[in-house]
Amino acid sequence: PCRVPVNHKCNLPAVCFVWQIAMIILFGVFVRYNEESDTRWIEHRRRKNISTNLENDFYYRYPSFQDVHVMIFVGFGFLMTFLKRYSFGGVGFNFLIAAFGIQWALLMQGWFHYLDDDGKIKIGVENLINADFCVAGCLIAYGACLGKVSPVQLMVLTLFGVTLFAVEEYIILELLHAKDPGGSMVIHTFGAYYGLTISWVLYRPMLSQSKHLQGSVYHSDVFAMIGTLFLWMYWPSFNSAIADHGDGQHRAVINTYLALAASVLTTFAISSISQKHGKLDMVHIQNATLAGGVAMGTASEFMITPYGSLIVGFCSSIISTFGYIFLTPFMEKTLKIQDTCGIHNLHAMPGVIGGIVGAITAASASESVYGQEGLINTFDFKEAVANRTANIQGGYQAAGLFVAIAFGLVGGALVGGILKLPIWGDPADANCFDDEVYWEVRKGLQTETR
Amino acid sequence: PCRVPVNHKCNLPAVCFVWQIAMIILFGVFVRYNEESDTRWIEHRRRKNISTNLENDFYYRYPSFQDVHVMIFVGFGFLMTFLKRYSFGGVGFNFLIAAFGIQWALLMQGWFHYLDDDGKIKIGVENLINADFCVAGCLIAYGACLGKVSPVQLMVLTLFGVTLFAVEEYIILELLHAKDPGGSMVIHTFGAYYGLTISWVLYRPMLSQSKHLQGSVYHSDVFAMIGTLFLWMYWPSFNSAIADHGDGQHRAVINTYLALAASVLTTFAISSISQKHGKLDMVHIQNATLAGGVAMGTASEFMITPYGSLIVGFCSSIISTFGYIFLTPFMEKTLKIQDTCGIHNLHAMPGVIGGIVGAITAASASESVYGQEGLINTFDFKEAVANRTANIQGGYQAAGLFVAIAFGLVGGALVGGILKLPIWGDPADANCFDDEVYWEVRKGLQTETR
Amino acid sequence: PCRVPVNHKCNLPAVCFVWQIAMIILFGVFVRYNEESDTRWIEHRRRKNISTNLENDFYYRYPSFQDVHVMIFVGFGFLMTFLKRYSFGGVGFNFLIAAFGIQWALLMQGWFHYLDDDGKIKIGVENLINADFCVAGCLIAYGACLGKVSPVQLMVLTLFGVTLFAVEEYIILELLHAKDPGGSMVIHTFGAYYGLTISWVLYRPMLSQSKHLQGSVYHSDVFAMIGTLFLWMYWPSFNSAIADHGDGQHRAVINTYLALAASVLTTFAISSISQKHGKLDMVHIQNATLAGGVAMGTASEFMITPYGSLIVGFCSSIISTFGYIFLTPFMEKTLKIQDTCGIHNLHAMPGVIGGIVGAITAASASESVYGQEGLINTFDFKEAVANRTANIQGGYQAAGLFVAIAFGLVGGALVGGILKLPIWGDPADANCFDDEVYWEVRKGLQTETR
């Protein structure tokens, strides 16, 4: 019954093979261990007068790395298992493109940020965190396309997505010197607009043919809650993973924790008020409860105060939940954007809020609140930007937000155009949201009654 | 078919909204970053002569915090998904009340323990751990009421539960100066008796009308195992999270690990021996395997010895499993206490055992075992209690247990009375344990056969 | 309908009880806290001139321990839930034997490695990691027997498995002085051949009678992905948990991370190329994506270079996936080895690859790459083996691999013979892969339609 695309058989294996071999060659040419990971660390230690092995930064970043890692693979993966017949594709293709993306990200980010004098990229644990971050943008974009694209298209989406990410990240963080430790702008805003534009280019007018597969079943909703909760719980680690050691990391955790807590109550309130009989909708609970984490990404290290964080969580979840109720149907009907997971509500809008909050809180930062040294440390007003004031920093933050949006829109249009070529083996409209197109699905799908 | 309570529509949103706004206001008035999380940390560091940012306590508490966080949201949440038609409510309402409870706990515990000279509560990572701990008591109480109360009732239960918790914790830890790092008394005993008393007040004589929904289905039992395992695995972190740095934390991990390991074998033994044909019961495996962790909460830091920990796990699981077999039906029929999750067996009895074990091991602590300084460090025999002996400490530990029980019983009766008012939109007897009362549940609940 | 073995009723409880009591007695006689976990640590600290409690090794090993712990209980446990009617047994018996195994491992490994002058085993967090490692070997062996043995047989398998493990580990790591931080040889190769040989001895010619239960259902495959992902994500922690502090641990993480990333792409490629219509097979995705982690276990600390790690992941997953496609059916038909989870493909072959890779990279290690001190540190060329060269070390690594295989084969034959005795209550051929033999399974297994 499933029309399997004719050229699918050779495409996916070919792409995976060729690209993996390309990775091996590029890593062979470019990637080496950094000083903390090299056996010559002991000599380096002596040179730098480091007294014990335990001052290796590994011990302070690694637990954060593992939390972020869980968010990428279990968090995003299981969040996308909610469809009744696309759970394999949700968690499986997430696994595939994340595993490819982190390799490509190590190279792309390496060329932009970690190139050593000898022309080699030197990697350590912090690079692994950044690669996970980078790939998150593509996984967000996948959310908009979930169930409507082939794995090969996803590989292409990821190849270009990671490339674009590395460039915009370089512009925003290095050239504009904006702060964005949790990636409200560079990850969420960029990723969401990238995915939404692709979805807009790939618009399927006859998608209603697979309408019967677009919902969830009882247990697929419970699976999705695994994703939601691991994202929710580890988000403080996400927003603090590459923050400054010391007070910065500490503050990022507290701010994110509070914003997320406020998001939950608000989401329950709006979800209940919007349905007849006041019933709750699992779609909202699975997604909008996370909006506070997204919106806290830019300002996580700033002195936004605990109640400021609560307000950010409060507002972003109101907007996010209303987005699911009103905007998603409107976008599909009027703007011709089919957004399977509602990433516009979970990543685009809260991401933009996060960027704006970051710009405002940066612009209004003062020595009386931060302390003289604290201000310099928090915003890195050193070297090339030693003379920048908080006010001007606010302007650069805002500029960063526009760069992220622009990269998402333009990049998405470009990549969407490429993905529209009829060579990628994407499923027919009637076979969307159906694992049987790409997966062996055993007969007798349900547990038998006895 | 579902009688939706008429006044439900406005209640939940109103409560969530108003309370979240109240939180924002109270946080605005009272809560600030502590020194380790403030940008002025760099000045503080210089004053205190701390050489690197890496000596910020963040790095030593944060991994423990994350483990505890997972226990609260995934552990408790998924443990309560075992019912065939109440998985949304199990994991979803757990999410709601935990997210509310941690905010309220930061305030309540802050007022009692962390109030600075300027009248502000100064928070850091340790407060986040304590807030998670505090909310655990309410989640335990939820276990007794699972499926029989409305979300608004749960919010009320949590509001009062956290308040009572903060008071009894203050009395037990500060006034009585009892030790309870893993909360056998302050968390488990209190939470369980609080929940059981509420359930007793809210007794439903006609609950058998929803008997067909009280069991599990195959996959809901597997979901519940996610909760069980994350609780079981991270329990050593729970019992050591706020223990003393150094040997105390170390010992708490070993003791808890061993008690839990013994619990598993014992539970399998009793479960198998009690059923006809020697078959195992998932209810026992999901719950009684955790009894050792509960029972190790008070004495986790003490020199109870490795084999002592095994004995504690061994005994508590025997009692817990037998509780599920004999006591739960007896309590329902004779005492009119309907205990959905069997928290009497998993938290009340093992919690009391934990309190008793703590009292006995404290009373029998000696300088020959602990060393002179070790004894002082372990029991904090300093300042106001510098002259206390181990023997007397044992008495205070026992007193702490009584305080916990008393707070549970009296508080539960009080709050139960409030929750009995006919204004909370609780489900009819025939609609208990049914997600359809509070959640949009899609038609076609099962994966289709093709 | 299920033939329940007659003598099953008393066996499991008796074994669990007697063995748990034996553990208590043995722990009472032999096990004590080590210096870092004892209240006398403060005196020890002063003696050793350690300035703060935070230099307690606890803080640097504990997060690794928790990751490994999750792999053992959730990773292995959920990976084995894939069968449609044996999910309880998969996760439940995994829980039982792991909880027993870690206790016995603490004793066995303690006697071989941690015996103090006073005849006591002194335990700390590192022992807990090692106990988890040790039990992993038995859980791998369980994979071959999944669904075909009784819980009592599993307890026996674990008792002997842990014993054999402790001996071969002692020979390989202490006597041969081979390096194997992630256990390609001592854990995976040994565990796999141990399990396969047992499965060969217990060959069931009429197993096709339960053929209808050998597959998965849709949601059981999603449950298994939880296991896969937690294993995949935390494998860098596994291979680095007991590696040298400093650069060694750092390098182990990077190498494992990269090998695993390459494994994913390769597995998708081979899985797709091998099926008609290019469809993907969940069995491959659940298992062969992990082959890179297994194959990286021995050489994880070596200077294998980042691209070397990618090549290891690439090759091991090709072999592993082809193993599932061709070897497993061949082994069942021709060699009479029934391997339920395909551990030959996930653990035996990648484990052997790991051992060979370790031997080759060790043999080719040079001072120009490692630095003089780096070479000594990485291979511990100190004390008794101070004069060993990298070349010779390669030979000892290869010898270690043979020891692991030999222990697996001989031990498996022996224990298989014991398990063949008709006293263990194993299920009839027609009842294999069926939870109803050992578990109370509620009627009405599926979520009702309404």
UniProtKB/TrEMBL annotation, chains A, B, C:
One of its GO terms (molecular function) is ammonium channel activity. The keyword RNA-binding does not apply. One of its GO terms (biological process) is ammonium homeostasis. One of its GO terms (cellular component) is plasma membrane. InterPro entries: Ammonium/urea_transptr (IPR029020), NH4_transpt_AmtB-like_dom (IPR024041), RhesusRHD (IPR002229). SUPFAM superfamilies: Ammonium transporter. The keyword Glycoprotein applies. Its main location: membrane. Keywords: Ammonia transport, Cell membrane, Glycoprotein, Membrane, Transmembrane, Transmembrane helix, Transport. Residues 56-436 form the Ammonium transporter AmtB-like domain. It is found in: Cell membrane. It is a multi-pass membrane protein. The chain crosses the membrane at residues 12-31, 64-83, 95-115, 127-147, 154-173, 185-203, 215-234, 254-273, 285-304, 310-327, 398-419. Functions as an ammonia transporter. May play a role in the elimination of ammonia in the gill. Homotrimer. Belongs to the ammonium transporter (TC 2.A.49) family. Rh subfamily. This is Rh family, C glycoprotein, like 1.
